[in-house]
Design a protein that fits this description.
Blueprint (H helix, E strand, L loop, with lengths): L11 H17 L2 H4 L2 H23 L3 H28 L4 H50 L1
Helix pairs in contact: 1-3, 1-5, 3-4, 4-5
Length: 145
């Protein structure tokens, strides 16, 4: 029986967001775009936020905290997609690449949404089991009294 503990690096959402960060850095390292410091810096920071918030959520003990960080991560993905429209509009030569990266970011967002749903299901399961345990404990207490 394999009892291997899951690591952050095993999460598909984190792995795909890491690839996205690399692609964003490649785009913003371009001669023309890197001179637009505000845009390139914000695009880099937003993409890193996706990856970092997945990591922070993964390391949290409580399910509600995990979900909150995963939601922040997904929102940062929306920011990346929005900023890629700025790239497309301001730098027409990179329009096609911006579109590709928007699609990649949207895919990462879908994976994060699945991660959120999965965590929420675990949270509901834990809550139900806790309620059952409390109910059984109260019955035992009443029976003993």
């Amino acid at each position: 029986m394999n009892t291997r503990t899951m690591k952050l690096e095993d999460l598909e959402a984190w792995r795909k967001s890491r690839v996205l960060v690399g692609e964003i850095y490649n785009l913003t390292g371009n001669n023309r775009i890197c001179k637009d410091f505000g845009l390139s810096n914000q695009l880099q920071r937003a993409s890193v936020s996706i990856m970092s918030n997945i990591a922070e959520g993964f390391e949290r003990a409580g399910c509600p905290e995990k979900v909150q960080f995963y939601r922040i991560s997904r929102a940062s993905g929306g920011e990346v997609r929005s900023l890629l429209y700025v790239v497309e509009d301001a730098y027409p030569a990179y329009s096609e690449r911006a579109q590709e990266l928007r699609e990649q970011s949207a895919q990462v967002g879908q994976i994060i949404s699945g991660l959120i749903r999965s965590t929420q299901k675990r949270m509901a399961f834990i809550t139900i089991n806790s309620l059952i345990a409390l109910f059984l404990l109260s019955i035992l207490t009443i029976t003993i009294l």
